[in-house]
Amino acid sequence: MVPWLKTDFWSNWISTDLAIDLGTSSTLIHVKQLDKVVIFEPSIVAINITTNQVEAVGADAKELMGRTPQGVKTVRPMRDGMIFEVDAAEKMLEAFIRKSKSIQSRFHLTTRICVSVPPRAHQVSRRAVRACCYDAKANEVFLADQTMVAAIGAGLAIGEKRGCMIVDIGGGTTDIAVMSYHGKVYSESIVIAGDEMDEAIVKYIKDKYNMVISEIGAEEVKMKLGSAYPSSQTKTMEISGRDMFEGLPKTLILNDAEIREALGPPINAILDLIRKALAETPPQLSADLITRGICLSGGGSLIMGLDERIRKETHLPVFRAENPRFSVVTGTAQLLKDIPLLRRIQILD
């Protein structure tokens, strides 16, 4: 058959299929027709208070945090993996979707969107996500379970009758699931993840050094010094902030041992979640995990030594997904290539 007579040819030409990981910290968008991630930006939007118009979105909005002029505010619409401020989320998502379409540079008649949502997302939050997508001119919207698509994106064979475990550590939540035959046998979530790690670092520095640092500064410290297991080399970095008592700028040197201590509570909470999941997994599936191990995904899994710490405490093989930050959006994109499976496992209100 002549290529331009094929249904898939016309579908790919006039439609845009978007896979969206609408995360607490970052939003990722994959365009099926381009087969690549075109948006990977912070989930932040800057809004003019007077006109209610978007001044900046994503990385541009993040640069304005703590530096906004009068009349402009920066908003993080997502909290704990769910929409917290609907109006801001709609504006942010519409801007990202518009940017995604412009990158594809084609004439679009239809837009089909699949969005991953955390397992703990309640009905109101799921409806808010749908509404945001339809307001952004989507023709068809699917919602998919975040842990399931993370497992698909990490390359786990969730369709087999053997068990597999995924631990997805995002910005707002840590989600864990044991899956078999395209279904979840066990699932649990906690609202302790990357953001709580940042807050723990802010609190530690405030309590120990009487110095206040920004969220962005804490995130930078986490990425450079954060660890869950001691290493042979000591790492240090300089951080700036404001003295709590004098109100003056202040600088100090931090080391990885201090930040490991600061991250102790949130990391211990994640370990407790994993232990609980293993204790409640059916025996036959537990036997599968001895050989298949635990897969880590999400940006929070990149904390140095976290895989080693979990391995030591569970006595199971532990491995990270090849691209942990992209697991969710990659799995969501793969579902858009298998619409019958997507319709089967989608989340319905």
List the SSEs and their pairings.
Layout: H1 7-14, E1 15-22, E2 26-31, E3 36-42, E4 45-48, E5 54-57, H2 59-64, E6 72-75, E7 78-79, E8 82-83, H3 86-104, E9 110-117, H4 123-135, E10 140-145, H5 146-153, E11 164-169, E12 174-180, E13 183-190, H6 194-209, E14 211-212, H7 215-225, E15 236-243, E16 249-255, H8 256-262, H9 264-280, H10 283-292, E17 294-297, H11 306-314, E18 318-320, H12 327-336, H13 339-345
Parallel strand pairs: 1-9, 9-10, 11-17, 17-18
Antiparallel strand pairs: 1-2, 2-3, 4-5, 4-6, 7-8, 11-12, 12-13, 14-15, 15-16
Task: Tell me about this structure.
The chain has 349 residues and is α+β, with helices and mostly antiparallel strands. The chain has 2 domains: 3-149 and 328-345, ATPase, nucleotide binding domain (Nucleotidyltransferase, domain 5, 2-Layer Sandwich); 156-320, ATPase, nucleotide binding domain (Nucleotidyltransferase, domain 5). Helices cover 40% and strands 28% of the residues. It contains 13 helices and 18 strands. The strands form 5 sheets. Strands 3-2-1-9-10 form a 5-stranded mixed β-sheet, sandwiched between helices. Strands 13-12-11-17-18 form a 5-stranded mixed β-sheet, sandwiched between helices. A hairpin with a 2-residue loop joins strand 12 (174-180) and strand 13 (183-190). The longest helix is centred in the N-terminal third of the chain and has 19 residues, at 86-104. It is flat and about 60 Å long. The two termini are 41 Å apart. Residues 1-10 have low confidence and may be disordered.
